[in-house]
Amino acid sequence: MTSPALQTRGLRKSFGTQEVVCGVDLSVAHGECFGLLGPNGAGKTTTLKLCLGLIDPDSGEARLLDHDVPARAREARAKVGVVPQFDNLDPDFTVAENLAVYGRYFGMKDSQIEARIPGLLEFAGLNGRANSTIRTLSGGMKRRLTLARALVNDPQVLFMDEPTTGLDPQARHLIWERLRQLTQQGRTLILTTHFMEEAERLCRRIAIMDHGRVIAEGSPRGLISEHIEPQVVEVHGPGSDLWMERARTLAPRVERAGETVFCYAAQVEPVIEDLRGQSELAYLHRPANLEDLFLKLTGRDLRD
């Protein structure tokens, strides 16, 4: 039986008196895209740092590509690529120079790096930009270059911390396409994201963290089916406050967020029939999605 690409058992980490990772168990198979979701402060980024051996756990163990971490983290990271949450490209270097310098960190020869650069630029949609300075690139180009840079050592596993934050929809979809190509090549992807659509599109399995603990794990569709009603009606407009009380008699679960009332049910026909007589209210009927699941498990309160 093949060992997992990444496995953790009982990982714990505190900063001062606050425990931010509280006994996390994870197992990621080779060749899968695994998503780690959670509100701000849930412990996602700290968990990734523990898995990479960038910080030491207070207790528990991690094994990455058959190497114990942090004891043999250096050996493990030689086969790993990392896309940080914020781009850290060197603004004084060209596109090609950024790739070359990063490759040297892995002990690669200049000839090896130069041979890989054209393919990496094509992958990132940056053909013809090898000699461009970083300051001339758009935000989407910089993010794609950061992804290409993480591939310079031909890694088996790619860690990505919110890979599409701050990008417009066109750039986000292009990166999704590139990440799907990587999974088709058999690479293992481990990502954190706040975009629920991103997790649904890319991830074979997800784990949802809150307050340092994994509170749910499985396939996106499997978790939705297990934890949440299959149909949702979103309602907004003048008088939605008053209508919300009536909605509680029509659907088993009714919630409000901002100006929108959410009705969750297996059968929403009674809700929709009632809304047809409410001309001042607008509504949207849709299937439940990963965002509904996320909000049910972690709450709707704002996290900073």
Outline the biggest β-sheet.
6 strands, mixed
Count of helix runs: 11
Report the principal-axis shape.
globular
Query: Which percent band covers the strand fraction?
Result: 25-35%
Label the CATH architecture of the largest domain: 3-Layer(aba) Sandwich
Q: Kindly state the number of beta strands.
A: 14
Strand order of the largest sheet: 6-7-8-3-9-10
Order of helices and strands: EEEHEEHEHHHEHEHEEHEHEEHEH
Q: What is the fold named in CATH at topology level of the largest domain?
A: Rossmann fold
Count of domains? 2
Summing up helix and strand content along with how strands pair, one would put the structural category as alpha/beta
Average pLDDT score: 93
**Rg result:** 22 Å
Quick one: CATH superfamily of the largest domain?
P-loop containing nucleotide triphosphate hydrolases
